[in-house]
Amino acid sequence: MRKTSDSLSQLALRKFKKNFWGVLSFWLIVIIGLLSLFAYVIAPDDSPNANEMHLSIHSQRPGFEVQMLNIPSEIENRQSLVSKLLFGTQSSDLDIPISSYEVENNVLYYTEYAMDGLVGADKSVNLRVFPNNDYKSYIQNKTFVFGTDKYGRDLLSRVLIGSRISFSIGFIAVFISLIIGIFFGSIAGYYGGKIDAFIMWIINVTWSIPTLLLVIAITLALGKGFWQVFIAVGLTMWVEVARVVRGQIISAKEMQYVTAARALGFNDVRIITKHILPNIMAPIIVISAANFAAAILIESGLSFLGIGAQPPMASWGAMIKDHYNYIILGKPFLAIIPGICIMVLVMAFMLIGNALRDALDVKT
């Protein structure tokens, strides 16, 4: 007969597995994480930042289909596989949306696609540019599942690659907030007295400043950019972690196992890192999940204001900013699709945070 483990971690895991919304959110986060990691493999447009523009097919509805002529370039692409996976494929090939074509005397004549019933320009290209004159394999029907944005870029590809920003800022911001928050919270809670009063003064001052305003100030000080936003968001979220850690350590330092560690002559650093922190990780994990969701919302707000990830980098917040006026122009999907993506990811982290809180609660 197999012996069932009664450790706290095993009990918490079993309780978490019984929470339907927690498990669903966990797998949803895993799936979105894999999609963001392999975004350039999955995305129809694998160019860097999915920034291939075709103004002739801008703002098309989901499911739009058009013939696409690919004119190969003679420039050889020497990118490594890792570079393509992380940064996209740098290609000099030319893709042209066309409405019709015909071949005559080794020359391909085509008509460029035009919207609103207009007739596109007639152009031609010699068949010698195609390997073995096989032009047919370079003319394919392309379907834009989510449609195209106002610049004629594939919206599905932009959404997939934009998920990287949300996941990256979540992990990096939470990591920064944990390092700073645990450090200051541990010192304030363990030593108390004037040290505690000074750190709490810093926490209260930082806490009193509106988060978005503080992030904007730090971003403007560090400059606009990808990493600057990550650092700015992380530097504004540590106060919540510090308050939680401080409160937990004030309670834990009076426990018998801490008294025993002191009696054995262990130094303060070892007592905090080896004895106290491992026993108060439950609330830290819960608040980290909530901070992950908050970081995604803050980044989206900064991108909407134009001080987040800068063009042509794909970001869900920037996509909403570029297309929010299309809501009243009959094409709301351009702003609604990235908005739904933000909502789903934030909701998943909030639900998994609630599930972890219930699973790690020793009183239930």
From TrEMBL:
Q: How does it sit in the membrane?
A: Multi-pass membrane protein
Give the Pfam families listed for this entry.
BPD_transp_1, OppC_N
Q: Where is the ABC transmembrane type-1 domain?
A: 163-353
Q: Where in the cell is it found?
A: Cell membrane
Keywords of this entry: Cell membrane, Membrane, Transmembrane, Transmembrane helix, Transport
Q: Which Gene Ontology cellular-component terms appear in the entry? A: plasma membrane
Chain ranges passing through the membrane = 20-43, 165-191, 198-220, 226-245, 280-298, 333-356
Q: Which domain of life is it from?
A: Bacteria
Checking CDD domains in the record gives: TM_PBP2
Question: Which Gene3D superfamilies does its entry note?
Answer: MetI-like
Q: Which InterPro entries would you find in this protein's record? A: BP-dependent_transpt_permease (IPR050366), MetI-like (IPR000515), MetI-like_sf (IPR035906), OppC_N (IPR025966)
Keyword field contains Nucleotide-binding: no
Give the family this protein belongs to, as stated in its UniProt record: Belongs to the binding-protein-dependent transport system permease family.
This chain's protein is named ABC transporter permease
Protein source organism: Psychroserpens burtonensis
Q: What is the lineage of its organism?
A: Bacteria, Pseudomonadati, Bacteroidota, Flavobacteriia, Flavobacteriales
